[in-house]
Amino acid sequence: MKIAILSRNPQLYSTRRLVEAAEKHGHEAHVVDHLRCNIEIEQKGPSLYYGSEYLEGFDAVIPRVGASVTFYGTAVVRQFEMMNVFSVNSSRGIVHSRDKLRCLQVLSKEGIGLPKTVFTNYSRNVEHVVESAGGAPVVLKLLEGTQGLGVVLAENQNAAQSVLEAFNGLKARVIVQEFIKEAGGADIRAFVVDGEVVGAMKRQGKEGEFRSNLHRGGTATILQLTEEEKRTAIKAAEAVGLGVAGVDLLQSSRGPLVLEVNSSPGLEGIERATGVDIAGKIIAFIEKSVKK
Q1: What pTM did the predictor assign?
Q2: What SS3 class is residue 279?
Q3: 49-53 long-range Cβ contacts below 8 angstroms, 24+ apart
């Protein structure tokens, strides 16, 4: 098969591993910078122009679209879909996952466990907003934030109200979320491929840090999920519409709670923590889907 890997940097660990896995399975892998693609739309059909040639003959595409270029990246994925090329993650699923508020609304509709979350249109009644999320401490998150950036823990009512007022004054869109104390500054990254959890790790924030992101100095260890945690992760990926997803969970006294569903989860942390060939699992998913 001929597989396109949409990535802006061929040297990234995840990109390199996907190329290696595709070639190991006997396929042809091409790294394509989605921002350098020209989308051509005309009566005779959709096409993509890249560099000095058209992108033709592809069987599948693996999108690795960064959050800052979601609009154009998903447009390129959509064009591949219009050209009848299988994508491990649909353009619609990527858009759903990138809109944090919409993603939480979709998960809520499916009855999936979530921290209580409040969103308002720059309400002046910030005291009520904080109380609606369960009262301080609360977590405030920028809707456009990634890798732990734009996430603030407000430990008391005054701090929560002050931070929310500051965000509102800047016209920054934020959600206010219940703080799950019993999680202890740790979360779970469950890696879902084709409706199955193929690897999971526990990420622990460094001392004094409530955010567990590996980019912020967190550590990762292999973890055996409970059946409920597996079901929650699989259901979340399915609800958002992703064939490949990193589902972030919190362990709470009322069961697993979904924090986020990531459509371009990194492979380095999960492969090193678990020893599982995640890239190979993604290629096997493509083989199965294209054959079907």
Answers
A1: 0.88
A2: helix
A3: none
- Report the alpha-carbon distance of residue 59 to residue 43 in Å, rounded: 22
Which of 121-135, 147-161, 234-248 shows the highest mean pLDDT?
234-248
pLDDT in tens, 15-34: 999 999 999 999 999 999 99
- Taking the C-alpha atoms of 58, 89, 274 and 200 in order, what is their torsion angle to the nearest 10 degrees? -170
Q: Which residues of 9-37 are buried (b: 16+ CB within 10 A; e: fewer)?
A: eeebebbbbbbebbeebebebbbbebeeb
Which token pair is 263? 């459509």
Structure tokens at 233: 């992760």
- Per-residue pLDDT tens over the stretch 212-235: 555 555 678 898 999 999 999 999
Whole-angstrom Cα distance, residue 235 to residue 98? 17
Three-state SS at 129: helix
| Phi and psi based region of residue 269 (left: phi greater than 0; alpha: psi -120 to 50; beta: remaining) | alpha
Instruction: Output the six-digit token pair for 17.
Output: 């591993």
Q: Which alpha helices (H) appear in 244-292, and where do they start and end?
A: 268-274, 278-291
At position 198, the amino acid (one-letter code) is V
DSSP code per residue over 201-226: EEEEPPTT-----GGGT-EEEE----
